[in-house]
Design a protein that fits this description.
- With about 260 residues, the protein is α/β, with parallel strands linked by helices.
- It has 13 helices and seven strands.
- It has helices at about 1-10, 25-35, 45-55, 70-75, 95-100, 105-115, 130, 135-145, 180-185, 190-200, 205-210, 235-240, 245-260, and strands spanning about 15-20, 35-40, 60, 80, 120-125, 150-160, 170-175.
- A seven-stranded mixed sheet has the order 3-2-1-4-5-7-6, with helices on both faces.
- The longest helix has 17 residues, at about 245-260.
């Protein structure tokens, strides 16, 4: 039984629907983590679509998340999505996730989760999501997840924690159907991976890396995004996630997925 379980974990690939895909940062993170296969993208930006089509030519690209249905993609295991931040960013208009036309699109993730077999969800946004609107914005996201029967874990984790020379603070949310965590023997999906990264930052190693002592710090030339993957490079990278951060948590989610079987 044990031998069969190990074999299954190594060969099973979790099917991913990559929403608000941009230039494929979450898909790169899944490839880094191993065990993930993106079966569909949804991305409205034409330049980003060209990048996705070039590097994942066999993966269909859907354009409008509001028109995408579960029937278009079938049953999946994981939804990923860095939903639009313009209405919650400190540089934005402050309309939030309720009144903001763009940031309120997080609800499309919830809708599609209900239509695609209740997969796990990995979401990303700016750190201001958890602070803005006197806490109402983040509470609205959590309430939306609870409404469809999901639990969630979250951490605000800057890219600088893994060696980036810039801070790039982001909130990372893993959500899963209620009862998933209780079935998983690892306990909370995020916590152990977060502690590894946070402890590394606290140890001073990040500062040493950024000063050039040891492995190179994370910058544009080795950020995990493939060469020529970014049409209009600065704009596309500015909208992209840092794959190395997401891959930490996707590794933990992959293992927890099988613990919960």
């Amino acid at each position: 039984m044990v031998a069969f379980r190990i074999w299954r974990v190594r060969v099973k690939k979790l099917k991913v629907l990559d929403l608000f895909a941009g230039i494929g940062g979450f898909t790169v993170a899944g490839e880094m983590a191993g065990g993930y296969e993106t079966v569909a993208f949804c991305e409205i930006d034409k330049n980003a679509q060209k990048v996705l089509a070039r590097h994942w030519p066999d993966v269909p690209i859907h354009e409008d998340v509001t028109k995408l249905t579960g029937a278009d993609v079938g049953a999946i295991d994981v939804i990923t999505g860095g939903f639009p931040c313009q209405d919650v960013s400190s540089a934005g208009g402050g309309l939030g996730v309720i009144d903001g036309k763009r940031s309120s699109l997080f609800r499309e993730i919830l809708r599609l989760a209900a239509e695609t077999g209740r997969p796990c969800i990995v979401m990303e946004n700016v750190g201001n999501l958890i602070r803005g609107g006197s806490g109402i914005w983040f509470a609205s996201v959590m309430h939306g997840l609870a409404e469809i029967g999901y639990d969630a874990e979250w951490h605000v984790l800057p890219a600088s924690y893994i060696g980036a020379i810039h801070r790039r603070e982001r909130i990372w949310i893993i959500a899963y159907p209620s009862g998933f965590r209780q079935c998983a023997t690892r306990g909370p999906v995020f916590s152990s991976e977060y502690q590894k990264v946070a402890n590394w930052e606290a140890s001073g190693l990040v500062g040493a890396v950024q000063r050039g002592e040891g492995m190179p710090y994370l910058c544009r030339d080795h950020d995990g995004v493939r060469p020529k993957m970014d049409a209009s490079r600065l704009r596309q990278l500015g909208n992209a996630i840092v794959p190395q951060v997401a891959s930490c948590f996707m590794k933990a989610l992959y293992e927890a997925h099988f613990d919960a079987q």
